[in-house]
Amino acid sequence: MSGEKGKINRRDFFKGTAIGVMGGTLAMMGIYSYSPWRKGHFPKVERKLADIGACKNIKVTNISETSWFENAHLMGDIKGAGGLLVNQYDYNWPPFGDGSGLGKGSYEKGIAKIKHLLPDKLDEAWAVTEKLSVHPENAGGYACLIELEELNGKKHKYLLDSGWSYKWTDECFKREGIDKMLENREIEALFISHEHFDHFWGLPVTMKYDPTITMYIPEGFYPEGLQYIKDAGHKGKVIKVKAGLNPVIPGMASFVFAIPIICRVYGEQSLYFNIKDKGLVSVTGCCHQSIIQFAETAYREIKYENDNLYGVYGGLHISPFEDWDPKYDDLVISLGKYGFEKIGCNHCTGILCAKKFISAGYPVVEGTAQNRSKDKAYLGNGDKIGFGIEV
What we know:
There is one protein chain. By secondary structure, the protein is α/β, with parallel strands linked by helices. It has a single domain (50-387), classed as 4-Layer Sandwich (Metallo-beta-lactamase, Chain A). It has helices at residues 10-20, 26-33, 71-81, 107-114, 122-132, 166-176, 178-183, 197-200, 203-209, 223-231, 291-301, 328-336, 351-359, and strands spanning 50-51, 55-64, 143-150, 155-160, 189-191, 214-218, 238-241, 244-249, 252-261, 265-275, 279-284, 302-303, 309-314, 342-345, 384-387. A 7-stranded mixed β-sheet has the order 7-6-5-4-3-2-15. Strands 8-9-10-11-13-14 form a 6-stranded mixed β-sheet, with helices on one face. 49% of the residues are buried.
């Protein structure tokens, strides 16, 4: 879409989208946000243009996007436990169930039931937590494998997140060969996007196969999360990534957004890749920071090929519970103005949202709806996407 008619200057677009998500009547937001009138109200965006280098290509394998299987169960539990501001470790969800009931749990009581079994006896640990937790059958998890090739041909493998359910995550790891890659030390590091249950609580599955793997976590983890890394059996290096841009290797950087998130979680780490001759690719776990802030941050902070936002993959955090609100239509319109040439969405994007992207004619890479993923509108479990390479 980068060369299509109607693509506007990115600086002007970011000004417009900033208005589009502010207050005012919905009708006037739609008219005003995309009109020339907006230009006079914002200062010029100062770009830092940090050079993170360039890489040849990346390939992303969706290990699991099914964070949970039924929205109704998850939202019912959250509401019953007191709402979205309740500490996630108190819900009594697996693997930290202690048998005391919804909203009455704690990390300390829950981990005491299974700590002696981690990380090697996961089947036994899960059997214990299934009896003590609320809706253990609803736990799934998010994780993906990122394979990067440098310009000199050197290749790297990284994990983004480690799922939730021990049982489901281990099944998915084995399906995609992640277990063997970890055992063979082929995967260099595990990046945790944020501390949420569906991205982080399956950590012992990764530790089962490589307890020495280097971990990158966003600064802001709570004491329970930091302790869980130890209790899960991790024996390697833990790098607490500070807020802002953090280069990793040529062509790859993470960015930690210092934001509060529901269920008493703080901070999200997302990844940026600069693909030679193509442009910038953004990879995210949930994108709680919003797709607008994600793209605007890239524009403001990073120097990338052809000044082109080439692709995006991951959760885009628009209507994750299929509870569509008309205000989300502004975000759908906004996405079309970025000029992405490849869009791979899943997880908390929402199926309805992905279908709206497709209906709008955006270059969405559709999936296969296999391995318990529900729809072809987004990349499901086991699906792949390439940037700078065909898969």
